[in-house]
Design brief:
The complex is a heterodimer. Chain A has helices at 6-31, 37-66, 78-108, 129-164, and strands at residues 114-115, 119-120. By secondary structure, chain A is mainly alpha-helical. In chain A, strands 1-2 form a two-stranded antiparallel ribbon. In chain A, α1 (6-31) runs antiparallel to α2 (37-66). By secondary structure, chain B is mainly β. Chain B has helices at 5-21, 81-88; strands at 25-26, 32-39, 42-48, 51-56, 66-72, 76-77, 100-110, 115-124, 127-140, 143-153, 170-183. In chain B, strands 1, 2, 3, 4, 5, 6, 7, 8, 9, 10 and 11 form an eleven-stranded antiparallel sheet that branches. The chains are: A mainly alpha, B mainly beta. The interface between A and B is medium-sized, with 20 and 19 residues.
């Protein structure tokens, strides 16, 4: 079965690891009461990871527009193809929407992002506490929606691998082509 | 009509003298005091919500001017309640023990058009330092507006104790920015 390009595979897994890391860190850091140097460090790391996801997502979208993904197995029913496409589109939207909502949330809260502590990223909006209050739950719920969809995405991949045994997952795994 | 020319002149001079001695009233709504600091290199500017400035200034005699600013340390607003609570706490301002940070001028000298060199004592968290910084003065409608920036080192005032002494988390350099609008 034809596989994704190496570029697409690398971008997929890098983004996956960063999203899982940033998501976990987000839950951990917001659970720490008060403030401490550790908490502030986690906030910075979380923001750097999010910005990195945004950059990689941009590369990935550009690559996707120029490279068609490999065909799905012929055995797959039409409704599953439709569901897979729909889910992939939503995930593409969210790998932009989640970091962007966080980025604007931190700007509205008055804390610009200094990438890796080295250089300040653009400040598009001025400090605005009311807007920050609005963006906070938006960032949270976009994350929860994404977590749910990633869960579906993973469940579907595992079903193809272990129930259907149709080689769908192999297209996105690193290694030799079959 | 018993005023003579001399009497009128004396009266005007007397009024001018009175005017120069009357302290200006600070327009708190159009004044602000904030601190700019860097947290892991992220520039953050936060305001002190409550402060009082007492300025006695006559443009004709700037060298006679005096200024006093009292700031409520508990009113520092970073934007989140739990952050504000931490910053008012023992390791930072210790607002319970040191509720006020103050600046009291000792000498004000003219330093060119619309500029003053202000010297005085800055007291924060029980520590006092002699400071000198430039201030610009401009007229906005009926008010005089004094603006300036005063760079300080937070650790010299024990601002940020214990684990917060780490300047890679919060830089030692802090700039106090102020704008005082005052009129009669």
């Amino acid at each position: 079965m034809q596989r994704y390009t190496t570029t697409a595979i690398v971008l997929h897994w890098l983004i996956a690891v960063l999203i899982i890391g940033a998501f976990t860190l987000g839950l951990v850091m917001t659970d720490i009461p008060g403030i401490s140097p550790t908490k502030l460090k986690y906030f910075s790391w979380h923001k750097w990871a999010g910005v990195t996801v945004l950059l990689l997502a941009t590369l990935r979208l550009l690559w996707r527009l120029k490279n068609r993904p490999p065909a799905l197995p012929d055995t797959m029913p039409a409704w599953q193809r439709g569901a897979a496409h729909g889910l992939h589109h939503l995930l593409y939207v969210l790998i932009f929407a989640v970091p962007l909502s966080g980025y604007f949330y931190t700007l509205a809260a008055g804390f610009p992002v200094v990438y890796f502590g080295l250089f300040q990223l653009p400040v598009f909006i001025a400090k605005n506490p009311a807007l920050a209050e609005t963006l906070k739950p938006i960032h949270y719920w976009l994350n929860m929606i994404m977590a749910g969809l990633v869960g579906l995405h993973v469940a579907a991949a595992l079903k193809h691998q272990f129930v259907d045994r149709d080689g769908t997952l192999g297209r996105m795994l690193p290694g030799r082509s079959h | 009509m018993t005023f003579t020319r001399g009497g009128l002149a004396a009266l005007l001079a007397g009024m001018a003298l009175v005017a120069s001695a009357v302290p200006l009233k600070t327009d708190v709504a159009h004044s602000s005091v904030s601190a700019v600091f860097k947290q892991m290199n992220v520039p953050v500017e936060s305001k002190f919500k409550t402060f009082n400035a007492q300025v006695d200034y006559d443009a004709a005699h700037p060298e006679k001017a005096t200024a006093r600013v009292d700031i409520d340390t508990a009113s520092f607003d970073i934007g989140e309640a739990e952050y504000n609570k931490e910053v008012a706490g023992k390791d930072w301002f210790n607002a319970a023990k040191f509720p006020k940070a103050t600046f009291v001028s000792s000498a004000i000298k003219p330093a060119g058009a619309g500029k003053l060199a202000v010297s005085g004592k800055l007291t924060i968290k029980g520590k006092t330092q002699d400071v000198t910084f430039p201030v610009t003065v401009k007229q906005e409608g009926p008010k005089q507006v004094f603006e300036g920036q005063l760079p300080i080192k937070r650790l010299a005032f024990n601002i940020g104790e214990g684990e917060w002494k780490d300047t890679s988390m919060v830089a030692d350099e802090v700039v106090i920015k102020f704008r005082v609008a005052a009129g009669q």
